[in-house]
Structures are given as C-alpha cells and as structure tokens.
Amino acid sequence: MLVNFAGKRIVITGAYSGIGAALVELLRQAGADNITVLDIKEPETPIDAFIETDMGNPVSIDNAVATITADDKPPVDILFNNAGVAATMPADVVMRINMLGLKRLTEGLMPKMQSGGSIVNTASVAGNRWAEHLIEINALLAISSWDEGVAWVADQAELIADGYFFSKECVQVYTMQMAKAATAQGLRMNSVCPSPVDTPLLPAFRETMTDERIDWAIETGAGRVATAEDQAKALLFLASDLASYVNGVNLLVDGGYGSALQMGQFTALGS
Ligand SMILES: NC(=O)c1ccc[n+]([C@@H]2O[C@H](COP(=O)([O-])OP(=O)(O)OC[C@H]3O[C@@H](n4cnc5c(N)ncnc54)[C@H](O)[C@@H]3O)[C@@H](O)[C@H]2O)c1
Description:
Elements: E1 10-13, H1 18-29, E2 35-39, E3 49-52, H2 58-68, E4 76-81, H3 91-109, E5 113-122, H4 134-141, H5 146-155, H6 157-160, H7 164-184, E6 188-194, H8 202-209, H9 211-220, H10 228-239, E7 250-253, H11 257-262
Parallel strand pairs: 1-2, 1-4, 2-3, 4-5, 5-6, 6-7
The structure holds nicotinamide-adenine-dinucleotide.
C-alpha cells in the first residue's frame, strides 16, 4: 500500500458533513483505525472518538486539547483543521471558527504531536490574495491571547469585511508561517485551497457571494463543481508520506481556476 494510516492517531475538525466526512471515509479505506472528530455535531459515519467542540469557543477547544492529550493517550500523528463556516454567520464568528480557533487548537496539540506527523488545514481560494494584507495578518497572528485576538478583529471591521475572505487569507499565511516550526519538530504543515465544493456549505456561499460569482469560478476552473471527495483526496495526500517533502504549501485544489486567472484565460465576471 502506498498510503497506510493504520496505527496513526488522527484528529479532524468538522467531519459531520462535507469535505471532513468524505475525508473520514477515505482515511478508513486507507487503513485508519484511530480517528477522533471535533465538531458541534456528532458524525453518523463510524469514528473512534467524538469530542463535542465548538471551534469558535476557547474553553471548548481547551477542553478538547486536554482530553486528546491526557496522560494515558498516545501522541497525535495527524491533525486536519477542516471545520469552517461561511459569511452567513457574523464576521466575528467566522473569524473565531475559521482562524482563531484553528490557531488555538493547533498550538494546543502541536507541542504534543509525534515526529513524522503532519498538520493539514482546509483553507480556500478565497484566501489567495493574502499578500495584499500580509502586514495586518502578521499582526493578528502575533497575538497569543484569545481575548486580544477577538478585540483586534472587532477593531478591524473594515479590513475583515464579512470575515470569510480574510479568515482564509490568514489560514494560508499561518500555514506558511508555521511550516518552519513544524520542521523543527519533525512535522509538516500544509493546506488545501478548494474552489467551490458541492457540500452543505455551498448554498451559504451562493447566498453571500452570489450565484453568478460561484458559477463563474466553476466555469473558469474545471467546468464542474468539485466534490467533497476531490478535496479529501488532496487532504489525504498532504497528510501522507507521499508528501514527505512537502511543507508550507497552500495547494490549490481548484480545477485550474487559479492558473486560469493568472494566465488571463477567463471571461470577466458579469460580461
Ligand atoms: N464548500 C465549499 O465550496 C468550500 C470552498 C472552499 C473552502 N471550503 C472549506 O472547507 C471546509 C469544510 O467545509 P465544507 O464545505 O465541507 O462544509 P460543511 O458545512 O459540510 O462542513 C463543515 C463542518 O464544520 C462543522 N462546524 C461548523 N461550525 C463548527 C464549529 N463552530 N465548531 C466545530 N465544527 C463546526 C460542521 O458541523 C461540519 O461538519 C471549511 O473550512 C470551508 O471553509 C469549502
């Protein structure tokens, strides 16, 4: 077997539905026998442990970290930070779940992770324009206190806008920034950046970004919407030894959307 997750301790956030649920299925096919899910809803697919966790709530996250890292438990090998919400939620909630919570969980678990392991974040093509806000993103990422992070977010309402694009820019930058620290610990950190994916979250993106924009992104890319499994395959690859020398990469899994934009191979939105 080229990939085999038997004996690996795996933690996944947001695996009740969509990409996370597809990932659980693929991991099972690849031998995974120790999967812990953190979500607000308990998955219906069989997993090994479920810890009800609100990724927007620091107390809930800290409780999950304490449970996962209890003395009698083996170290974590793989962390998938996949939970996320759309801008149908208020911007501060989007920022808490998509970024502040992701960072808090990572920093809670990473020191206890086993060398040879891997962290994979689910970012988005919505974060591709991170370079335009790098100074501000670095300022937020430098804040270690939860309350100060929340206060910073409240102060930057104009920059953060509806929260979704900015939160995913932060996830892309965080992935690159943490790659060095990951290496020092024998770990790797990467992200997958999906374009629109056919999951229960897609109607929320259609509502906040308009049908026109979502359909344009799909047509500019592969001409078909991504499936949750398309994304799960890339997540699984980055977590596996097949990606043993891949670190600090934000992998576009977008059917060619990003390259078409870069090469000018698209019809302008609205034309
Ligand atoms: N669907 C898309 O078009 C698309 C595109 C780019 C990126 N993404 C990203 O993919 C990831 C997975 O989303 P999806 O499309 O599979 O949607 P989804 O709604 O099916 O999955 C999101 C998961 O996160 C869980 N969740 C929601 N709020 C939570 C919270 N407060 N705490 C813990 N868990 C919570 C949900 O219960 C669910 O299991 C998200 O990070 C999303 O931003 C999705």
